[in-house]
Amino acid sequence: FSNVSIIPTFANQNINIGEVVQEIGKFEVSDRKNNEKLKMQIIRSFDVNNPGTDIKDLKGGVLGGGLNAGKLSVGDHIVLTPNITPGGKFKSIKSTAVYIQSEFGEEKSVGRGLSIGVLTNLDPSLARRDALVGSVITSEDNLPRVESKLKMSYEPIKEKTVFDKPIQKGEALLLNVLSSRAVGTAQDISKGELYVNLGEVSIPFFSGDRVIVSRKVKNTWTLAGSGTLL
């Protein structure tokens, strides 16, 4: 986006709205392949039932997030792969998309790039208070890897930074992968590659997913670079 124009805009006064629309029209639309397999990251999860709701009226857990690839339709069978907290055990959960809603209202089928909420037939207690944040929704033939030892390509940010030396072996790092967030330890650093151990935590991911790496500076996590999981 280095050549994108900067257009001063005042929407309430309808100033430069046409210019913004014209600039958006210059963007290249990515090729959305029809054979992409479903992948959706969970950034929110809810139990929408009010206390005292009769059992026959209970609704399943609601999952909110962005559709990274493929498409999702009402009635589709889905698999939820959770991230694993210390002491937890890995288990994928099968469910069904009962109802889908986007910012435009009810949807029967949605494609990549849209943020949606999905009503499922999951036990609502599993989704309560964002308990499933960091999980990934896929189809049964497209399950993610779930690992605690990660290998990635790594490139530090090129701009002037507060870091006076490169990542050191044994240094604590904060990783953001899809909607998962975990702290690990740098195990090995070679040219262009980084190995991180998350200990008892495991996260779901696919090879090729982007990872954001932060280092601690004066007790504050600071963006250090990014990479791709291998």
From TrEMBL:
One of its GO terms (biological process) is formation of translation preinitiation complex. Keywords: GTP-binding, Initiation factor, Nucleotide-binding, Protein biosynthesis. SUPFAM superfamilies: EF-Tu/eEF-1alpha/eIF2-gamma C-terminal domain (SSF50465), Translation proteins (SSF50447). It holds the Pfam family eIF2_C. It comes from the Archaea. GO terms for cellular component: cytosol. Residues 164-228 form the Initiation factor eIF2 gamma C-terminal domain. Gene3D superfamilies: Translation factors. GO terms for molecular function: GTP binding; translation initiation factor activity; tRNA binding. Coiled coil: none annotated. The keyword Protein biosynthesis applies. This is Initiation factor eIF2 gamma C-terminal domain-containing protein. It comes from Candidatus Acidifodinimicrobium mancum.
